[in-house]
Each structure stands twice: as structure tokens, then as C-alpha cells.
Amino acid sequence: MTTPNEEQKNDFIRDLITNDLATKKLSQGVITRFPPEPNGYLHIGHAKSICLNFGVAQEFNGRCNLRFDDTNPSKEDDEYVESIKKDITWLGWDWGEHLHFASDYFDTLYEYAEKLIQLGKAYVDALTQEEIRAGRGTLTSPGKESPYRDRSVNENLDLFHRMHDGEFQEGARVLRAKIDMASGNLNMRDPVLYRVVDAPHHRTGTQWNIYPMYDFGHGQSDSIEGVTHSLCTMEFEDHRPLYDWVLDTLGLYHPQQIEFARLNISYTILSKRKLLQLVTDGHVSGWDDPRMPTISGLRRRGYPAAAIRNFCDKIGIAKRPNTVELALLEHSARDYLNQHAPRVLGVLRPLKVIIDNYPKGQTEELEGINNPEDPGAGTRKVPFSGELYIEQEDFMEDPPGKYNRLAPGREVRLRYGYFITCVGVDKDAAGAVTAIHCTYDPETRGGQSPDGRKVRGTIHWVSSAHSKPAEVRLYEPLFSAEHPDNVEDFLTVLNPDSLEVITGCQVEASLEDATAGDGFQFERLGYFCADEVDSQPGALVFNRTVPLRDTWSRTA
After folding, report:
1. Which residue from 91, 215, 539, 550 has the least number of CB within 10 angstroms?
2. Quick check: 431 and 403 in contact, CB under 8 A?
């Protein structure tokens, strides 16, 4: 298992493992697992669990298994399996030879179920799902025992085998644990262990007619794999007694289940069911839509894997639930990209600048700094000519007092270039400015004046003859509500301004061969990457990853 070396971290899980090792509680090394169900794409919440499970294993010289808990064939697919493997690899983790599927253990799990029946600890029930739910009782009242609860061992075995052989339709029979219908924990009131499912499995096809429930298959899979610390989110805390009961009743090796708080992020939905609805209903372009909190969406938007790992480190591991500000995730990306992303010039809404006194037909190459945070990144050649593009917002015909950019009679500095002064404008019949005319001072190449005069503004630009056309996509949070999960219908708080597509942009020629996923700082504009789906030479598409600065304080 490999990932970049990181400092030793401290939290209650790592403290517990340290103590387990110190007291020789473990007869083997540390073994964790990441157990996704392949019924959707991974999201940023899964990234927290991935970094925890793989990170803990690495720090304690153990291993982390990747296991697909594929026990629900009606919702699972090979597409999700491959996407999950890709996402984990991209995040920087490697499971090596330790790739498993719960379906690898179907035969063994079936034998475990038979053993529970033989021990008188499980029975086949003919109640419907609704009847089982109604009979479970409440937190203040006990459940009602099924009339089929006292079947004989032989009768239960016969019925269970007939379930296996496909005799019963979906919903007609289930296998339930026989525990305690008066338990204070609803999960212990004779939970369902096996059910009939009439759907082909993505790996086993039609070989099986019955499938284990998650609560039955998960703990036994942990046991089979020798997992020492089964790390899961707090919603499984109430399921731990069932996890323990099954293992203890069967007399199996018993991993230790430890719960931690799941990740919640403001302005974000992390429910896989709701994310699927966004995709299937067409509210987003797919699981990898850059507005989605999926790992594939974040990758397409330009979030570096290292930034996501850093984010997971910053938020830490705790038991108490809380909501992390979306701004912290953006900050992690911004901080990493500031250190590593090359600087380039791009103009989103071009306005032509004609330098009247620049020699006609002349082109020169200016020196552009690739990254001021990294002296080793060097410089690049930026072509300059007598016709440029600047941002429309960098010119005003009648500017307010504190406007420091280009205006009639005003002088500004061109990044890496010269001082220019506006001397005139061209307008169309409607009075809209179509071009501005300037003069340049040839003595100010590189942005310095020999006479020491100062200019208050520096703007970016591209040479019109050398720039490349591009489409740029600006993203805002997908939801307008800070806590969309708390809204009765989360679709009512979709942000109508979550995507702005700008066509007709112009970027410097060095971006013509931009590789999908490579991050850049468009100077003065933000951090961008070439879209991994739509961008290609001659038809460049860039996604804004994050703005240059935190905008949350200005919009709160």
C-alpha cells in the first residue's frame, strides 16, 4: 500500500489502535477495510473513510482491504465497481492484492445461516415486509413475535433450502434472527438476515436466488478477512450489537467495530439516493458533473487528489457530528493549487485593444513567470503584439473614483508587458464599446518605468493574433440552502446559478495542448483545469475549480 508520506496523526481511533498494539491485544498486524456497496459513485464523504482506513493501515504497517459489499444485486453494477477502483487509485491509495467481494463469500455466508438455524437462532418467516415492520414495535413498546417464530429446526432448514432453490417469489419468505422482540435496540428485534431477490447479480449472475442483508454479510466478511478494526460511521453504532451477536453466536473470529462521525458539508448533499436522483432526473449532466460532490466530479472540476487528502486530514476524526464549511474544502484546493499550479493568461469576456503606436506586424516575446511560489518552475515565452484582448470589466468609459483600471486618459500596466494609456474608443451603432485605442511606452517593458512613475492598476491580456478560443465554465454550489438535507424537498433549493457557461473566451497559446486534469491559475481570475470530457485541441473547455480568494465572507 502506497501513498505520499504523511505525518503521524492523532485521534481516538489511532489512540485505540496504539493501545491495542502496546497491550498486545492484537495477535496479528492491523488490518482495516474500505467496504463500499457498488450502487453509485463515491463522494467526498467516502474520501474521508478511504483516507482513514488506508491511512491507518499504512501508519501502523498493516494493510487495508478493498471489499465490495455486493449483496443487493438490484442496485449494483460493474460500472460502479470500476469507478470506485479508479477513484481510490486516483486519491493515491493502493489495496495491492487485497481486493475482495462479499459475493466471494456467498457459499460460506449461506453455511453460517444454516448453522444459525441449526442452533435455533434463526427462522424462516412468511410475514410481509410491511407486517414485519409493523410488528417490530417502537422505542417505548415491545415488538410482536411472528407466528412463524417457533418453527422446528428441520422445518426452517427445509424452507431455507427451498428459498435457495428459487421456490419462493421475492418478498414471500425471509430468514430472521431469533433474538429478542422486547430488546431496547430495534435492530435486535429479530432482524432479517436473508431475503429473496429476483435480479441477476453483476458477478454471480442467476446462481443465487437469496442474498444476505448488509448486517449479516458485513460482519462475517470482516471476520473471514481477519479485519482487526472495522471502522464505520456513527449510524452503524446501533447496529454494533447485531454485528457482535452474529459473530459471537457463530463462534467466529471477532473484529472490533469502531464508529466515527460521518462527513457533512454545507451547501452539499451526500446521500447516495439523492445524488442518484439528481443524475437520473437530469438536474446534472452525470455522476461526474463538476457541481457534484462525487470524487469523479471533484476530479473533473480540477480538485487535486492531494488537496482532498489534505482536507480529510484537516477535518480530523471525531464521534460528535458536525457540519464542515464548504469553504474549507475550497481552501484546501486553493492552497494546493497556489503552490503547484502554473500561471497563465486568459480573458473570459474579451474587449479588443489596439495599440496605435506599436509597430505594425511586429510580434515580440515577453517573459512570463510560471509560478512565483516555486522558483524552480521557471518562465515561459508570452507573445505580444499591437492588438490585444483584455477583460471587458477592465475598461470603463466613465469610471467611479476608486476605479484603478483602464479608462480614457488613464494609464495601466499590462502583466509582464508595458504601460498603456487609453486614447480613444470605437463604438457600434447602439453606442456599445467595440474596441479601445491605446498608446504604449516602449521604455516600460516588463512593467517598470525608467522615470519611476507609478500606475495604480495591473491587468491581464492575451495577444489577439496568438490566443486560442475557449469555453469556460464557472461553478457555484449546486444548492442555495446551507443545509439542503434539512429541506423537505431538496430539489426546491437547487441553485439556478450553479453553472455559467462563457463562450468566446481567449487564452494564451501555451494552453492549446493542456492535458485534462492539469490545473492552472488564470491570473486575476481563479484556478482552472481542462475538462477531461469535453476539452480537446481546437475546442478547449476549462472548468473553474475555485476562485482566487475565498468569496464566502463576502456573500455571507
Report:
1. 539
2. no
